[in-house]
Specification:
Number of helices: 10
Structural class: mainly alpha
Radius of gyration: 20 Å
Distance between the termini: 36 Å
Number of strands: 3
Order of helices and strands: HHHHHEHHEEHHH
Helix content: 40-55%
Largest sheet: 3 strands, antiparallel
DNA sequence: TTAGGGTTACAG
DNA sequence: CTGTAACCCTAA
């Protein structure tokens, strides 16, 4: 594996994959014209995209014989070999993954006309909920969920997202969890690593993990990612940022789910990671754009 | 503009 | 030296 000149970053790869999944392989110019993709691939030309895609396909094709073992958490190559319209969703055996959504390119008919406005970041929603609830001992997850559900149009998987986000916020030190009650952590500026005191070691890293809440594991599917990307098209920076934030939350939730399940989630893991990579990169890029134009 | 072939640069 | 990945050139 060479690491020669300007090696492609994981973010760029994820963006390329997302673009190909959306527009199809070969529409390099189209992908590059998309604002959200061009942000990430600003330093790449259409030829670069083509070459990279070729390399990735060749790499994936060469390993046809040996059974693919584990996908190392970096630069996962996926088996998207379909052209454009087919969009083969990985058919997993036990847990059905859903949709073979046609997604006939909604150029003329934006289906998101009925979308629920721009969704703020779940992080901020949680903080807002806790703040407004003003419960001295902190708010429980259920209370937060109810607050969000009443004030906003929440997705069905809110529970999952909320659990994952709460966990993350707690781990990052932005929230303090005491007896199932979440409080807003004291301002530690940034670098969540609280230096000295506050031994939250007994945070209960793995308390009762192996308990899948619902047998139904709904992991992000390619089509869902596509749907998000489709929505991101033609959005303003703020809206796109919000969408990207949600994508991050969903990806993280998917990863957490995959890790907890730890079963045969190879595919899901790869997809979730890919989604996370792209979402993170999108957010980063958008942030940079708003700041440094 | 894209697909394909060729060249360069680096890792093993 | 060989394989791979980014880069480069050119025909369609």
């Amino acid at each position: 594996m060479g690491a020669p000149k300007q090696k492609w970053t994981s973010e760029e790869e994820a963006a390329l994959k997302a673009g190909v999944t959306k527009y199809g392989a070969g529409k390099w110019s189209t992908i590059l014209k998309d604002p959200e993709f061009s942000i990430l691939l600003y330093s790449r030309s259409n030829v670069d995209l083509k070459d990279k895609w070729r390399n990735m396909n060749v790499a994936a094709n060469g390993w046809g014989s040996r059974s693919r073992v584990r996908v190392t958490p970096k630069s996962n190559q996926q088996i998207v070999k379909d052209d454009d319209k087919a969009l083969i969703t990985v058919s997993q055996s036990d847990t059905e993954i859903v949709d073979a959504q046609p997604l006939a390119v909604s150029n003329g008919t934006p289906e998101n006309a009925s979308s629920k406005k721009s969704i703020p970041r779940l992080d901020n929603l949680i903080l807002e909920a806790i703040t407004n609830l003003k419960e001295p001992r902190g708010s429980s997850r259920a209370a937060i969920a109810i607050y969000i559900e009443e004030r906003y149009l929440a997705p069905e998987n809110l529970e999952k997202l909320l659990a994952a986000t709460l966990k993350l916020l707690t781990e990052n030190g932005k929230l303090i969890k005491v007896k199932h009650q979440f409080r807003i952590a004291p301002p530690s500026t940034h670098t969540d690593v609280n230096k000295g005191s506050s031994p939250l070691i007994l945070e209960g890293k793995q308390k009762n993990s192996p308990k899948v809440e619902k047998n139904e594991i709904k992991i992000l599917s390619k089509s869902q990612i596509d749907a998000e990307l489709e929505k991101m098209k033609g959005m303003t920076a703020q809206e796109a940022a919000a969408a990207a934030a949600q994508a991050v939350a969903e990806a993280e939730a998917a990863i957490a789910e995959a890790e907890e399940a730890a079963r045969e989630a190879e595919k899901a893991e790869a997809e979730a990671e890919e989604a996370q990579l792209f979402a993170e990169a999108a957010m980063k890029a958008l942030k940079c754009r708003t700041v440094c134009t």
